[in-house]
Design a protein that fits this description.
Homodimer. This is Nucleoid-associated protein HNR45_000714. This protein is an alpha+beta fold. The protein has 3 helices and 3 strands, in the order αβββαα. The protein has a 3-stranded antiparallel β-sheet. Helix 1 packs antiparallel against helix 3. It starts with a helix and ends in a 10-residue tail after the last helix.
């Protein structure tokens, strides 16, 4: 029985470290950014780890085309790609911290 208590204490210590590491990772992720382009560079977008757009540049040539639907599609594509990159970045960090334990989403 003593061995089980020691194992449980060791496991709880590991879980606490993992929680601390996850909190630190979440804070670091807030400061990270990703940059994407769409339409061959016509749209350039920067998004932070909280999925907030911090920069959006639109090539004036796209505006001159007076094609609102095309512009909407390009911005949508850029936002979606940036969101995927942020998700991938977060997922890689979680896997690094958890050692790929395959924990359920939202556990940390």
């Amino acid at each position: 029985m003593f061995g089980n208590k020691a194992q449980m204490a060791g496991m709880m210590k590991k879980v606490k470290k993992m929680q601390d590491d996850m909190a630190k990772m979440q804070e670091e992720l807030k400061r990270k950014t990703t940059e994407v382009t769409a339409g061959g560079g016509a749209i350039r977008l920067v998004m932070n780890g909280e999925k907030q757009i911090t920069e959006l540049k639109i090539d004036p040539a796209v505006l001159e085309a007076q094609d609102a639907e095309m512009l909407e599609d390009l911005v949508t594509a850029a936002v979606n790609e940036a969101g995927r990159k942020i998700d991938d970045m977060a997922s890689q960090e979680v896997n690094r911290i958890t050692g790929g334990m395959g924990l359920p989403p939202g556990m940390f």
